[in-house]
Design brief:
mainly alpha
């Protein structure tokens, strides 16, 4: 489950997995799993795609379902959308 804390960890590394891995995963101090890290990146990419291009309503609907399934609450969803505005 993606939480605000996990998104903050993702933001701290600007989505850069290698830095996250070297500094957190190798030391066992990460709160975000590898699978969650890549899911966050995928969700952010899809949100950016929706904002920048014309995508089908089906794509938008599927993304919303996915976000609701994996995000813990509204604050997490709001923060996810906020992160999608960054240009790293």
């Amino acid at each position: 489950m993606i939480t605000v804390e996990k998104l903050k960890e993702y933001k701290c590394y600007h989505g850069y997995y290698d830095g996250f891995y070297i500094q957190k995963v190798k030391n066992g101090t990460n709160i975000t799993t590898d699978e969650e890290w890549h899911l966050i990146g995928s969700l952010i990419q899809d949100i950016k795609l929706i904002r920048r291009t014309h995508v089908s309503e089906e794509f938008k609907n599927k993304l919303q379902i996915k976000i609701l399934k994996y995000c813990s609450d509204k604050d997490t969803i709001d923060y996810l959308y906020e992160l999608s505005e960054n240009e790293w």
